[in-house]
Amino acid sequence: MNLMENPLKASTKMCLLLFYSSLLLIIAAVFSTADDATSTFQSIADGQTIVSDGGTFELGFFSPGALKNRYVGIWYKKISVTTIVWVANRDTPLTDSSGVLKVTNPGLLVLLSHNMSTVWSSNTSRTAQNPVARLLDSGNLVVMDGSDVDPENYLWQSFDYPGDTFLPGAKLGRNTVTGFNWHFRSWKSPQDPSHGNYTYQLGPKGYAEKFVREGSVIKFRSGPWTGVHFQFSGTPQLNTSPIYTYSLVSEPDEIYYSYKLHNNSILSRVVLTSDGIVRRYTWIDRTKGWLLQLIAQIDNCDNYALCGVYGACNIEKAPVCSCLKGFKPKYPKEWDLVDWSNGCVRNAPLNCSGDVFKQYSGIKLPSTEQSWHNISMNLKECEMVCAKNCSCTAYTNLDFRDGGSGCLMWYGDLIDIRYFAENGQDIYIRMAASELDHVDDTKINAQYSESNVKKMRIIVTSTVLSTGLLILGLALLYVWKKKRQKDGKVRSNQKEDLELPLFDLSDVVCATSDFSNHNKLGEGGFGSVYKGTLKDGQEIAVKRLSKHSRQGFNELKNEVTHIAKLQHRNLVKLLGCCIQEDEMMLIYEFMPNKSLDFFIFDQRKNTLLDWPKRFEIINGIARGLLYLHQDSRLRVIHRDLKAGNILLDGEFNAKISDFGLARSFGGNETRAKTKKVVGTYGYMSPEYAIDGCYSIKSDVYSFGVMVLEIVNGKRNRGFSHPGHNLNLLGHAWNLYTEGMSIELLDTSVGDSSNQHEVLRSIHVGLLCVQRNPANRPSMPAAVLMLSGESALPQPQKPGFYSERVLDDNNVDPCANEATFSANDVSYSLFEAR
Fold first, then answer.
1. pTM (2 decimals)?
2. Given 589, 610, 641, which residue is the final one in a domain?
3. Whether residues 690 and 750 fall in one domain
């Protein structure tokens, strides 16, 4: 009897569950007044959808990624890539497909589970006679009274409670009367819509500026609204666009930031991603994908308060932080250790009545949390008011259009300042009178009287004679030094061009134990790399130019020129250089885990890189390349991307290194041609290796090779397989065409792999190594492909499908010289035809 009791109970419960589920669906169908052709409804069940008036958006139930949880959300209807723009029950998912979204009589929009319990509801405060819900073609889900003559008198709207997506027409701001705040919050992860750690909002106080916060900590600040080109002070890249127009609305009861599209047929959205980055995407019909158009945080200087109070960040300098003129580091020792958080202090204290205002130009205006503004005052009136208030530390225009208008004044210390080469603003900072140069040269000359002429003649004559003797002595010294050490002289004169901190040779020798073999980390085309420890305990990596290397000062200067002006979490950090006597060296931050090839190509060490680490390395390299190609001040093509040039920090985060062969472009340039082909065979794209044509798509090809190497654990060059003579790219292509791509995965990763991520990585890698550069994705597209869930285009056969051995007896007939080595050292002087 006991053996039969539990199965009977289970069967009874199952029948009841099926009965109630069916009844729930019937009730939903009875109450529903909508189908796929209308935007107004009172109830929809899981499996049904509502389409907006113009067919742009769709409302329904969905499950993100591979999760089984069910959510109510809104997504784009017209495109093939599922893109969620709003989620109702972010933190309270349904666990089955029996949910119902309905409008109740008081005017509440509620989500019910299978047992009719409320999972989520709107917070409508008013009642209605005939409440209905409607999905507008703006993507706004509204609850309204069907009997109300005013169609926009909404009881509730989703635009008041946005998720991670900022749609055209939505608001980012606050109601100054009620305190209500329109803000955005990131997803927890790309597959988890629950509330993440980052918020995007207009500041709760001060003049209008946007903030990204991680919890309560400010990570990014846009700077105040300037009006020029409809942009904020710290985001000059968000310029006038033919696609959209920004606006700031300031009214007595509310202030908010918004944007609208010039053409409503274009799909464009702003997203606060799960990593806290604000990105704008625009849908491209031709490629059937989202194009990453803009990123708010473009470089290291966008990290909030990086240089502390009265410190200013300049991404074109190294180090990036310096004190404003008239200020000095508060703690000089910390400043020397690249800790700028405590900022700067005044050289001379203020005394209020005798203070003056010094103009600083081309900057991002400081945080306005402690500020006051007036729209009717002019700049002169603003100065007068600020001067009379001893607590006022700076002032400027409120709006910079048409010569400037209004008044914006700061109280307290100034923080989060940076310099811009273009499109920066002017600010007038209160200073002690002793900090200004009151007298100019023309006034000094005018004060000379006739009685001083003779004295001046004597002084000038003596100066000329002394100068002549000094020049003669210097000339003799120059000839002597030139004979003694010509190369050292040239290098000494070239130090000034590098714009980097210079390390003393004796300090580097001491740090590396006189370049001992015990401290040697590796060797490349430039020379050897050594680990060192400075006197203050900081660990460094020293790249020392070999006296026998064919690379020299030009390559060293090229690397410094590019990497010193680039700041990104996935680029190696250059600390300085040493050019002294016969030595030329670059000093980098130390990477304890060496380079990527040190792990993935070693049968013992590759087990330390499980799949999550490998996938994060792939994404890290992609983010670094995206920065180089699109978001950096320069458009940089690396030209020598390979596993050996990807360094790994203590947590195995990838950092791109070795910019000795890099080239940068200005404006809209993206490609060039050269007769001198440089790079590493196995990673070079066909159009570059054969014809000397390089572009950002050349780097994309190299990235694709690395992706497949990271997945497989073997080098592309020299890859062997018992079943064919193809290289790694050809092997990956064969497996893909046979539907067996998963077999490419390195067996050493064990059970740590995520099959979806592995297959997607292989697919993206094959797209990147296609022969035709036009068919390869851009890095923004590749980044999206790696993290997305949408269908990917079909790749074509890779370039360099099979290995072509290049040795002394089989060199390209157009080449004058070629040098290759077994360890993939970079080569150059390979003339393209």
1. 0.54
2. 589
3. yes
